[in-house]
Amino acid sequence: MALIAAKKCRESFSEVFDFYAPRVKSYMLRLGASDNEAEDLAQDVLVTVWRKADMYDRKQASVSTWIFRIARNRRIDRFRKASRPELDADEPMLRPPDIEQPDEALDRAQIEESVRAELAKLPHEQLELLQAAFYEGLSHSEIATRFGLPLGTVKSRIRLAFGRLRGQLEPGGTDA
Questions:
Q1: Is the pLDDT of residue 105 over 80?
Q2: CB neighbourhood size of 129 (10 A)
């Protein structure tokens, strides 16, 4: 290792490679790597040994301990990389939303204004239940408990509110 670190001695590296490559491959196979993956990892580990031989410190560990630590860490890195899902650039959920066109923004604003105006016309008991359902996300049962009403009453009032809104907001609608 000293010759590899100091002089990049190819003969010394060849000896290290011939001795450790099959052992690292066997170690990778025992850790569950496929034959091709074990071979690839063994080569990767020994290339790292070649490149980082100057980092080896005989006072800290033996050559085999140092090489197998590199192997273990490389296997962990590969496992982590394989555990991450591949992201598809064409995935619709990863795309930014389309830019809203001015005419679409105007249409949306007009619809929102109409809905607000029609909501304001609803009887208070219907509006209150709609707000609990849609703004607070409460279920019909939770609304019944909160307002002390029978479940059927809650469902009826919400259904009546929807009917009234639908009648006013749909094209050609009349008050229900």
A1: yes
A2: 26
